[in-house]
Amino acid sequence: MFDLIVRNANLPDGRKGIDIGIQGGKIIAVEHNLQAQAGEEIDATDRLVSPPFVDPHFHMDATLSLGLPRMNVSGTLLEGIALWGELRPIVTKEELVDRALRYCDLAVTQGLLFIRSHVDTSDPRLVTVEAMIEVREKVAPYIDLQLVAFPQDGYYRSPGAIDALNRALDMGVDIVGGIPHFERTMGEGTASVEALCRIAADRGLPVDIHCDETDDPLSRHIETLAAETIRFGLQGRVAGSHLTSMHSMDNYYVSKLIPLMAEAEINVIPNPLINIMLQGRHDTYPKRRGMTRVRELMDAGLNVSFGHDCVMDPWYSMGSGDMLEVGHMAIHVAQMAGIDDKKKIFEALTVNSAKTMGIAGYGLEKGRSADLVILQASDTLEALRLKPNRLAVIRRGKVIARSAPRIGELFLDGRPARIDGGLDYVPRY
């Protein structure tokens, strides 16, 4: 007797007509025609059943703050940082908690149950840290939230930043962050990477650095990050986020850089929506779009995962909490439109991101946590094309969100009366 059985599921690996048996918050069976009963059964009706979406790079302290205290007129990264610097000293813990919880409500409906959020530690009050720790506790029953101590104004550039980052880690923040390209000089940026990796090694923590989020091809802190990762024995525990300068680097240098990154087992986190919005702002035409070299990094065996980064905040006025929107944009910007390409993009929203975050028990295999999403799509390719409704979101074997199918009605002589979210016209590969 199972607690829940999801029947007739299509899985991301291509298996079809699979039944998933769940008991005690765990997946107990994954097989065809499961001969068992359950307290509850859900018929997936040959829809895609996926593990939950994972966002390994977000800024929850700033989310939903669009227009406060004003709009980002230039649309640039630097004005966004300055604007957040105006809001940060006047924001309250209550406001931060309220906005973050509202975003988490949205995330759950999108099947997004794992989030890594960078938390600005530049204000010595650390009200952002206090607020996000409270949010982490409140959402723990339905979202795994990791927190990164992020010195937004620079580890060396901002007075008191060193002490504030250490205090944030003492308070229970999970990960060491940094922003070397925002330091005053390349030398100070390099020094900050070394110092932050040393802190992580001493404390036994992972590292996630905003690294080379710039159009400058000479911003090469990822090289330093890879070298320090090896030096301190942090392989597999370090993420380089953004890496947009790689978009502009010459190919010969990159041919040396990528093998070094692979040796260090760097986790790479591009943020397609925000990278193409913020980069290339000083260009006329040709105009760079800034996203890092996704295909080359994947081909080299690096773990590439995609982040949403921002939703309606000083840097990005759009966003929906939908990781399929992120993947949809990645397909276009990375020019990865082939069938195998799209499968890799879907993995970058799920299993790759879970690896980046070190999530235990993730996946649809027997013995894993019973966290899954039923989508109104037949497979991963159509999920990326349609960005479909999440028909059910399940956490530890319990349904925590539902959405009605998207159905179009037609009133045309001789034509179908209903259109099932576009699925009636899906090509068969």
Automatic annotation (TrEMBL):
Keyword Hydrolase annotated: yes
Gene Ontology MF term list: cytosine deaminase activity; isoguanine deaminase activity; metal ion binding
SUPFAM superfamilies in the record: Composite domain of metallo-dependent hydrolases, Metallo-dependent hydrolases
Signal peptide start and end residues: none
Domain Amidohydrolase as annotated: residue spans: 40-400
EC number(s) given by UniProt: 3.5.4.1
Record NCBIfam families: PRK07572.1 (NF005748)
PANTHER family: CYTOSINE DEAMINASE
Record-given protein name: Cytosine deaminase
Organism field: Rhizobium johnstonii (strain DSM 114642 / LMG 32736 / 3841)
Phylogenetic placement of the source organism: Bacteria, Pseudomonadati, Pseudomonadota, Alphaproteobacteria, Hyphomicrobiales
